[in-house]
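Exercise: predict the fold of this chain.
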Amino acid sequence: MNAKQQNSRSTGEEENVSALMTNANAIRVIAQAVEGTIGPKGLDTMLMDQFGDVVITNDGVTILELMDINHPAARLLINIAKAQQVEIGDGTTTATILAGALVNEGVNQVMKGVPVIKVIEGMRLGIGKALQVFESRAQAIDELDEPVLRDVARVAARENEDIAELVTQAAQVLGKEKLLDPGFKLAENIRAVEGADNQVVSGVIIEKEPVNVEMPKKLRSVKVLVIDDALEPEELEDEALGTETGFSRYMKLQEEFADNLAKVARLGVGLVLVDRGIHDKAEEICTDAGIMVLQRVPHKELQQAAEFTGAKMVKRTGLKKTEAELAQLLGEAAEVRLDEKLKHVCIMGGKGKAQATVIVGASTKEVVGERERIAKDAAAAVQAAVKGGIIAGGGAAELAISREISALRQQAKGMAVYGIDCVIEALKEPFAQIVLNAGFNPLEKLGLVVAAQVEKKNDALGINCDTGEIADMQEMGIYDPVLVKKYALKAAGEVAEAVLRIETIIKKKEQSSVAHPPKDE
């Protein structure tokens, strides 16, 4: 190899290292932004925009979403955290910390001369083994009234006992079958309201008021019509209205619309929920008939109401059906009432599937968002625990699993063992950060806990963050959902692998948003 080739190779290697370090540093910054929030002694983060609006939160994904970050590797981590939130609803901070640790350890190994492909190979082996161990150690939740389920909610709710109580009560109202439904998310049934009292409503809450103040505010034994459309006559094109035939058709549609509304009134419908707007004529007829109408109801709430009352959603053209046919599409509820203070409508005693809505009270508007985020985390954790079981929290389980993965080093081929080492070290990070946030030396406590776990053959041993003493996490009621742990580790592994694989950073050329036609020749 001549001098020119050597210089070219040297320059290429320097560029590769530069790209790796740049990306690793970006990931490290993101991880540092949330690591101070983990654990019972974790602190809040304040985020402020250019207008001075402030958000104070302990929620990992909220911090990540609101941070002003443009680096592509950092955005990758943020997107993974968002995916964790969508899929599981909790554990974004853990996923971010694990990803940061995996990337940091991976970079250290690469800088020592370990090929990236070998680091990744070992990481895959280690993460795969860890996921299996998490699965095998999961403690199933058989009944929804088990005290451990409330413990899960309390830990996820950052020791807010009132929120833990609300969430577990709602879970019991809904039942296990509902919580296991892949399409249902308990977190979506959480509402934080300024000035409200904490309560679990055995029903559905619609965040709307009747379209007319003269409409009834309270109804009993209610028939419910759910319209996935506008409550308006069918429309005609403007051109058609300019003709005699078109105008005649328009008047016929208006009459037909009025007849359909009269039909609804004859069926004894007391509540009409509309996806879009309502025509003035419909408002007048429904008000005179004593029907409560809620318009522009969010589609999710519309679906919940239909499922709860047993109604079948119809389009406006569905109102043309005969009375007998339309009656089969109506739902029923024992009571519908307007809460004038909170400006929403409660639907209770539906004949369909069980529903529960959690109202979380907040003293001021400044804390409404954070109270809702906390409650949603607790709800997601409870549902994940029911689906996949629980395991000792406080980072204890990860420490125990890291020891078990150490045995995997003997089965690895060659330099892949260094990738396994990355997973071993990363699994220690949640425990270390929790201990650090509590004000103790993580290295000292880690050594003591690992020794105690081995000596007493108890993988649930961790650190009491109040006293700094070794304690059994399960006896303290500190549990985490296994699904949260598994998904966080899997997501962290995907981020680490993607970042380590990036060899070169190239700026894309700017592309015009307007396509220019080719010039004539």
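Check your answer against the key: The chain has three domains: 3-139+390-501, 146-202+359-388, 214-355.
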